[in-house]
């Protein structure tokens, strides 16, 4: 029994508690029509996510997000140098949304060495435009290793978005 307990303690000390994932940037992407393949994501309110083009850049490094049609916001992560591929769970928490009052949405992702992972939420449906505290995170084995808070508003920040995104607004 003592030997087993010592082995468990040693494994706990040696095993890293967090993944080697880092935040690259976060912010808002101007409203655009959503394109990309839909893939099943049973951990989301809609039951699917849209695969997005990874080369996109944030138009505003803002964390105050007005609830506007087709506006996207989120974060980009990468592995710390020298780390192997990492399976992660992307989590978005927000005030209750949809008929079921969903507050946590999640999907699986893989972060490859030398690449970045862009994860966004896009307001495609009216029921998604829920004001309040939102948070994007990366979890490894249920433990958050990167967290990025946002505040979704009904109108605050709209002027900044309209100014930065005038060419995309109709």
From TrEMBL:
It comes from the Bacteria. InterPro entries: DUF3859. Residues 1-19 form the signal peptide. Keywords: Signal. Residues 22-152 form the DUF3859 domain. It holds the Pfam family DUF3859. This is DUF3859 domain-containing protein. It comes from Jannaschia helgolandensis.
């Amino acid at each position: 029994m003592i030997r087993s307990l010592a082995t468990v303690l040693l494994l706990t000390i040696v095993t890293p508690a967090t993944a080697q994932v880092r935040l690259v940037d976060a912010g808002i992407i101007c409203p655009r029509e959503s394109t990309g393949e839909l893939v099943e994501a049973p951990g989301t309110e809609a039951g699917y996510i849209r695969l997005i083009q990874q080369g996109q850049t944030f138009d505003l490094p803002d964390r105050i997000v007005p609830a506007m049609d087709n506006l996207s916001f989120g974060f980009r992560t990468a592995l710390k140098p020298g780390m192997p591929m990492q399976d992660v769970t992307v989590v978005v928490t927000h005030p209750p949304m949809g008929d079921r009052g969903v507050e946590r949405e999640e999907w699986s992702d893989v972060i490859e060495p030398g690449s970045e992972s862009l994860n966004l939420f896009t307001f495609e449906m009216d029921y998604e435009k829920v004001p309040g505290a939102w948070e994007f995170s990366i979890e490894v084995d249920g433990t958050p290793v990167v967290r990025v808070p946002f505040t979704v508003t009904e109108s605050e920040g709209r002027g900044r978005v309209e100014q930065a995104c005038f060419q995309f607004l109709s």
